[in-house]
Fold this sequence. Notes:
The protein is an alpha/beta fold.
Amino acid sequence: MSQALQALLCEPRYDGVRRATYVALDVPTWTQAEALVHRFGAAVDGYKVGLELFFGDGPTALSALRSMGKRVFLDVKLHDIPNTVAGALRAIARFEVEMVNVHASGGPAMLTAAREALDRAAEASGVVRPLLVAVTVLTSLGASDLDALGWTGPQAEPGALAERWAGLAVRCGLDGVVASALEARRIRACAPPGFEIVVPGTRPAGAPRHDQVRSLTPGEAMKAGATRLVLGRAVTRADDPLSALAAVWVEMAGA
Ligand SMILES: O=c1ccn([C@@H]2O[C@H](COP(=O)(O)O)[C@@H](O)[C@H]2O)c(=O)[nH]1
C-alpha cells in the first residue's frame, strides 16, 4: 500500500508541489530522521533541518541528505552581530544546502553581511550560493506576545512588521522571507517577481495547531502567494505520514 502511494506521489503531476515542499525533520538524531526519509522515499526530495537535528546530529544529517540527492533548507535562524553571522554562514556554505535563513530583526547590516558572506563563499568554491531568506514574525507569536515584546500599535501589527521586514530583505539582496500564510498576500503584493515566500506552520482544516498561532491551511497558504511550504507535525506525526502528505499535496495542487 505505502509503496503504491509512494509511486503515485512520484508522478510528474506532483512535481510542482514536490519542489514547493520541505518536510521538517524535527527529531534529535539522524537515525530517527532517516526513518522518516525512508518512509517518504523518492516522493519527497526536500527536507528542512532545524535546530533540534542540527544540534543533535547536524553534519551527519546534512551530508547524508546530500548524498541521497535531497534538497535541504537549513533552518538555523541566525541572529547575531554581522561579523558572527557572516562567519557562521561561511562555515555553513560547505554543506551545500539549497536554502538557509537569518532573522530579519538582525537588521540591515547583518542581512547585508550575511548575503555578502554567502556570495564570497560561492565565488571561492564555484558552488551555487544557497538561497538566503529572512525570518519575519515567527508563526508562534500572537498579538499578546508582540505586546509583551513592546511591539504595539499599527506599525507593529504582524502584517505590517512582516511587510516592512520583507522590504528590508529585498533591499539587502536576500532571496525571500519566511512568513506566516496570513501575511503572504501582503508580502507578495510588494515583493519583486521570484521573491521566495516560505511558509511554515500550516495546518489542514481541523488539525491540532500545537504551538502555532498565526496559521492557515496549506491550500490557503499557496493561494496567498507562498512559494514553498514547510510541512511539519501535521504530516510527520500523523499515524500514516505518507497518506497525510498525499492529502496536503492534493490540497496544494488544487490551490
Ligand atoms: O516562523 C516560523 C519559522 C519556522 N518555523 C519552523 O517550521 C516548522 C513548523 O513545524 P510544525 O510541526 O508544522 O509546527 C518547525 O520546524 C519550526 O521550527 C515555524 O514554525 N515558524
